[in-house]
Amino acid sequence: MPEPVAGTEPSGLRLNLRILSVAIFNFASYLTIGLPLAVLPGYVHDVMGFSAFWAGLVISLQYFATLLSRPHAGRYADLLGPKKIVVFGLCGCFLSGLSYLLAASGSDWPVLSLALLCLGRVILGFGQSFAGTGSTLWGVGVVGSLHIGRVISWNGIVTYGAMAMGAPLGVLCYHWAGLRGLSVIIMAVALVALLCALPRAAVKASRGKPMSFRAVMGRVWLYGMALALASSGFGVIATFITLFYDAKGWDGAAFALTLFSCAFVGTRLLFPNAINRLGGLNVAMICFVVEIVGLLLVGIAETPLLAKIGTLLTGAGFSLVFPALGVVAVKAVPQQNQGSALATYTVFMDMSLGVTGPLAGLLMTWAGVPVIYLASSGLVVVALLLGWRLKKRPPALPPEATV
What parts of the sequence cross the membrane (predicted)? Predict the structure, then answer.
């Protein structure tokens, strides 16, 4: 991907605006995820009359499709260029809304309606992985690989914001216009984003021999494992903090989640240049330490205040882990394979969040809720040791020197 011409480095504000001009497509894709997220389980269970299993499956299908399609999204972004991948992904988001609309129109045939909802969720999973991976790589192509960390950070902010905004907006739209109206809004969001993306200038796909998936995995798996271990902290906070507060007999779990979210976004906004100044591995190791302290405070908390401080520190610590390790992982491969590297690296976080819930649930049933936070802190300690190993190992050959 082309680098900015020397002497034309944009200011901080202009740089952020250029990144956001592309990250907005990632925002749109995640908004189409957030809008139906709080609506579809109740619709499937209460309106259509299916069991809670089917209600959960409808939601989970999107995550499975995203997980399976991410490596393909990265490879095609390398081969075809990120703009085409973003356009393809936004088309998938649009078609998911169309599937919801057809499902709502076919409510007299519940099985057909359910099948259409499932189809829409699978299409959405493919659309999100392509739009998300493509948007990040498009942003890197616009501002140059020097700012990979900032691009990944901003994409994380917009996706988190879109999910947080989409769920309550979706509930309001559903109460106002039903599933049909919500489906039309989802289609409109994707269509507007698509019409904005089409006239934008593309960045050229890098030329060169693509690496095999196995070779890319060999370059990034250690960074991905560190990310997966650290992501457990996010998983246990987001999934079980409400149960933790209930077990303690406290109120204020929602506020604790708000503190986590504010710390997550605020840290990315306050330290936009930390990765460039300190290096990705150094920032990741600092973040691991902060996250470990936060999880330990939650695990041993005997007062709501201590638990809130713990969730705040956990959010701040986890905030920069993904971009900090991502910068190093992406630069471990030649430029023409960076899309595959980013997608492969991201898969580790998807898998971690997928398995954290059930495994932590089993541990919680056996040993109590506080133990899951202590166990998660132990996993982040392993991530810290892994980061130290990566920092101390001898420098590898330049990526271009090997296939």
Answer: 19-41, 47-65, 85-103, 177-199, 220-241, 253-271, 283-301, 307-330, 342-364, 370-388
pLDDT digits (tens, 9 = 90+) for 170-195: 888 998 999 999 999 999 999 999 99
C-alpha span between 146 and 263 (Å, rounded): 25
- What domains sit in the chain, N to C, each tagged with a CATH number? 12-197 (1.20.1250.20), 213-394 (1.20.1250.20)
Radius of gyration of the chain (CA): 21
Phi, psi of 373 (to 5 degrees): -75, -35
pLDDT digits (tens, 9 = 90+) for 202-257: 777 566 566 776 788 888 889 999 999 998 888 888 777 877 888 888 887 778 87
What does the angle CA 82 – CA 88 – CA 93 come to, to the nearest 5 degrees? 125
User: 149 and 324 in contact (C-beta within 8 Å)?
Assistant: yes
Cβ proximity of 325 and 282 under 8 Å: no
Q: State the angle between helix axes of 280-300 and 304-319 in degrees (0 to 180), rounded to the nearest 10.
A: 160
Which of 62, 43, 77 lies closest to 124, judged by CA?
Answer: 62
* C-beta neighbour count of 272 within 10 angstroms: 18
Structural tokens at position 256: 């604790």
Kindly report the pTM of this predicted structure. 0.75
- Number of Cβ within 10 Å of residue 380's Cβ equals 29
Give the number of other Cβ atoms within 10 Å of residue 186's Cβ. 29
Q: How far, in Å, CA of 234 to CA of 316, rounded?
A: 11
Amino acid at 110: P
Q: How many Å apart are CA 285 and CA 229, to the nearest integer?
A: 13
Give, rounded to a whole angstrom, the gap between the first and last alpha carbons of the chain.
19
In whole angstroms, what is the distance from residue 233 CA to residue 53 CA?
A: 26
Single-letter amino acid, residue 338: Q
Burial class (CB in 10 A: 0-12, 13-18, 19+), 141: buried
Q: Which two tokens stand for residue 8?
A: 């034309």
What is the per-residue DSSP string for 74-88? Answer: HHHHHHH-HHHHHHH
- Determine the Cα–Cα distance for residues 14 and 10; give it in Å rounded to an integer: 6
